[in-house]
Design brief:
Number of helices: 7
Keywords: ATP-binding, Helicase, Hydrolase, Nucleotide-binding
Distance between the termini: 51 Å
Organism: Alexandrium catenella (Red tide dinoflagellate)
GO molecular function, one term: helicase activity
Shape: globular
Strand content: 5-15%
Helix content: 55-70%
Structural class: mainly alpha
Protein name: MER3 helicase-like winged helix domain-containing protein
Number of domains: 1
CATH topology: Arc Repressor Mutant, subunit A
InterPro entries: Hel308_SKI2-like (IPR050474), WH-like_DNA-bd_sf (IPR036388), WH_DNA-bd_sf (IPR036390), WH_MER3 (IPR057842)
CATH superfamily: Winged helix-like DNA-binding domain superfamily/Winged helix DNA-binding domain
Order of helices and strands: HHHHHHEEH
Length: about 140
Amino acid sequence: PEPKKNFYRRFIYEPFPVESSLHEQLTDHLNAEIVARTIKTREEAIDYVTWTYFFRRLTANPAYYDQQAALLETTDFDKQRDMLANYIERLMNKCLDELIRSGCIELKEGAVVQDGGPPSAAVDATKLGRTASLYYLGHRTV
C-alpha cells in the first residue's frame, strides 16, 4: 500500500535523532561507578554525566528529557546553561538519594577537599552496593 511506502521512504531517507535512555538507568550506572571508585564525590558524579551521550542529547534536545526545559528554546544562552545545570543537579540528587535509601551507598558530607576547594560530599559503596554492581543487579533488587 502507498501509505506504507511513504512511511518507509521517509524512515530511510530522513534522519532522526537517537535519544539516550541513560537517565532511566542512571542510578544503577552511578552505583557501578561508585563501586569502581571512578566516582568518589557528588561533584564527580555530575562531571561523569557531562561526558556521556545522554548529556550531548540533553543539550541538543532538552525538552525530551525535562518538561521545564521546553522553555529553553526561548531563553538566552546563560539561562539555558543554568537550567541544564539545575536539571543535572536535580537528577543527580535523585539518583544518589535512591542509592542511599536502598542501602547501596553512604554519603559523608564535607569529607573530601579537592584542589583546595570547599569540602565536598564523599560517596562510599556499601556491601549491598558492591553486591548489586558485581552481579549486575538493580539497586532496588538488593
